[in-house]
Amino acid sequence: MLPTDSVKRLSFKRCVSEGDLVIVYERHDNMKAIKVCESAVLQNRFGVFKHSDWIGKPFGSKVFSSKGGFVYLLAPTPELWTLVLSHRTQILYIADISFVIMYLEIVPGCVVLESGTGSGSLSTSLARAVAPSGHVYTFDFHEQRAASAREDFEKTGLSSLVTVGVRDIQGEGFPEKFTGKADSVFLDLPQPWLAIPSVGKMLKQDGILCSFSPCIEQVQRSCETLRSNFTDIRTFEVLLRTYEVREVKMNSFQGDEDRSTELPPCKRKQRLNEEGNGLENPSPPVVMARPSSEARGHTGYLTFARLKCAA
Amino acid sequence: MSIELNSNQNPKITWEGCNVLLDINDGDRLLFARLTPGSTLKIGNKSCSLQPLIGCHFGSLFQLETGDKGPFLSPVVEVSNQEEKGCKIDEPKDNRALVDNNTAQSLTGDEIEAMRREGVTGDEIVEALIANSATFDKKTSFSQEKYRLKKQKKYAPRVLLRRPFARSICETYFKKYPTRIGYLRVDSLSLLLSMANITAHSDVLVVDMIGGLLTGAVAERMGGMGYVCNTYLGVNPYPIDIVRMFNFSDEICKRIVQSPLAELSARENEISLQPGQPEDSCNTEKLTSPPPNSVNMDELMVTPENNNSEILTTAASPVSKACKAAKAGGKAPEVAIKSWRETGFSSLIMAVPDMDAWTIVKEVLPLLSFSAPFAIYHQYLQPLVTCMHNLQLGKMAIGLQIAEPWLREYQVLPSRTHPHMQMSAFGGYVLTGTRICST
Ligand SMILES: C[S@@+](CC[C@H](N)C(=O)[O-])C[C@H]1O[C@@H](n2cnc3c(N)ncnc32)[C@H](O)[C@@H]1O
């Protein structure tokens, strides 16, 4: 998924080859991650697609099925991955993820701790931000989930950047060996306040913590705990409003006087009905936008805090 | 596995010549400064040296004190945590008996000045003011805390030393000079960087008409690996002086390059006109034209008054600035341009808040490799709408979406949790999508 070194990158022709992970795009709300395998086929409502037809085509190509249906083959990115990964838990989405990466001030080379791993949606973006020399250590107490996440990082080619550990972070805290080593820590746990004392030990001076919680009561308790050795405690909610773009034909209002001289009222009505908008000045279609009527109304609160500097 | 990965890439301690963000009195005033032995900071009518800030941890807190040799910044040692104050919930006191007039305080301004001259610390003055306030005891503990804070800000102002990051630089500009960055709020900037898949070892095409904030934010995410290529229409590159605020190492600066659009797209044109022409000769003509930006950039370095003077402290001398000037924005190397022409850029990121987006997009999109994501910022909706529609009609991209980020901050306090009373109602629009192979 990531261009991990410059040598590989320059020779990288961005063509689909055997074993690649591709995102098959049907529509913006219908995508799927698939490993390319010469002998395999993809079957969907558009027909049967042979993987062998894909090999050698550039990423971003339109490919056709036996029936003439088509899909696009895209190179995976953390954003696309978040849209196609299998939901084993609630996950973080792009608006929260992008804000978290920015506010945690993560740059290449950083060491980031995370718990719980969940479905690895956030971890994928964390990995991109610390690459190529940093590392993400992520922990979940659910063995199965940790194992599935590990498989996913293998699939997306991120396993050299992300290590998944099985551990009860609320009960035991992060492993001692990370004491004073973390640039930032992210928590998505049911009782984050239980893990906060450990986070204080793990962070480097001036390091930043983010805790994501869906409920305000969780935020309240976390903030109370944070006040003892963190500063800059700030809580945000971030959402996205999306827009629909359409070409619309608008009927322009025609003054009565001009037209009443041309036609008797009954005739005029008839003509308007037949022809839709005004005959004399048909207005050209206009491209317009309006907010989509449905949107995610709440995901969670993001609380950030910086470890106090021991002067 | 070794966990010690990034000690010098991500320094945590200030050095002489580094740029810092100074947060005065808890966000009341934010400003950028360069730490040199000679640089000074003015707070109220007092001026103090920034020398004590050199060699300190980012995140350190200082307080303005007055000594024999005048005002100076002294590190604040936080005594345990006195935070739990102001947390009592069921309080019998309220403010019905308080009369707001100026007679409640019995210390006069002259007396306070005299105390200062004698070297009484700011904290002691605040305590004296409280002791001499007739109404302090009648206040609720919440308003007592407010009173203390107000006096502390005035008589013992605090300066917090922050490392400039894309986040804090964006927030500072958004707060002080939003028009210079086209109202790009930090959540919109975050979305742009994610959606454009910015990471180390990528080749990012940037159109930055917001003074270099975008360029700097992209470069920060790439850590000096890969290229940030700024392109521009015409002969003059767009100014990127905000890049200076980021404290970039030379390695990172070298990876911030500029190239006129005509040069980046040269091959396509040439090929259609004269196929078979060897690439080198195509370029010679372009190479002889003067590198447009080097002069321009130097000017920006030596005259901080140019664009951002209000945001920088005035003290740093222009000379020291020039010798430490980052070399960001050099001309893109030939080999890189050649490889971009062959394989395309890995993504596009754009902020052109006063331009017609489509006229630029239709020129720059073909420079991307297929399947490359792009993210475009605008302060107006309509240009992005037009752009999205045209991309759809031209079957140039898929996964198109226009989003408007919305950001709300909360006050979280025992029994007093609610959204902030004031919020930013607008932080711009972002159009995102993925380039496809149209053949
Ligand atoms: C909502 S999910 C995290 C989703 C993740 N942020 C993502 O974007 O995919 C929460 C995870 O925390 C894990 N968890 C809950 N309590 C935990 C604990 N005490 N220690 C470690 N992990 C825990 C759960 O198993 C679950 O997988």
Describe, in plain words, how this protein is organized in 3D.
- Chain B: InterPro entries: TRM6.
- Chain B: Residues 271-287 have a biased composition (Polar residues).
- The complex is a heterodimer of chains A (311) and B (439).
- Helix content of chain A is 29%, strand content 30%.
- Chain A is built from eleven helices and 14 strands.
- In chain A, 41% of the residues are buried.
- The model of chain A is unreliable at 268-278 (pLDDT under 50).
- Chain B is of the alpha/beta class and 439 residues long.
- Chain B folds into two domains: 1-163, Vcp-like ATPase, Chain A, domain 2 (Roll), CATH 3.10.330; 166-435, Rossmann fold (3-Layer(aba) Sandwich), CATH 3.40.50.150.
- Chain B has helices at residues 109-117, 122-131, 141-155, 166-176, 186-195, 213-222, 250-254, 261-264, 266-273, 279-288, 293-302, 318-323, 334-343, 357-364, 381-393, and strands at 19-24, 29-34, 40-43, 46-49, 61-67, 70-75, 158-162, 202-208, 226-232, 256-260, 330-331, 347-351, 373-378, 397-411, 418-419, 429-435.
- A nine-stranded mixed sheet of chain B has the order 11-10-9-8-12-13-16-14-15, with helices on both faces. Chain B has a five-stranded antiparallel sheet with strand order 2-1-7-5-6. Chain B has a two-stranded antiparallel sheet with strand order 3-4.
- The longest helix of chain B is centred in the middle third of the chain and has 15 residues, at 141-155.
- Strand 12 (230-248) of chain A pairs antiparallel with strand 14 of chain B.
- The structure holds S-adenosylmethionine (SAM).
- S-adenosylmethionine (SAM) is lined by residues 89-92, 115-116, 118-122, 139-142, 145, 168-171, 188-190 of chain A.
- S-adenosylmethionine is lined by residues 89-92, 115-116, 118-122, 139-142, 145, 168-171, 188-190 of chain A.
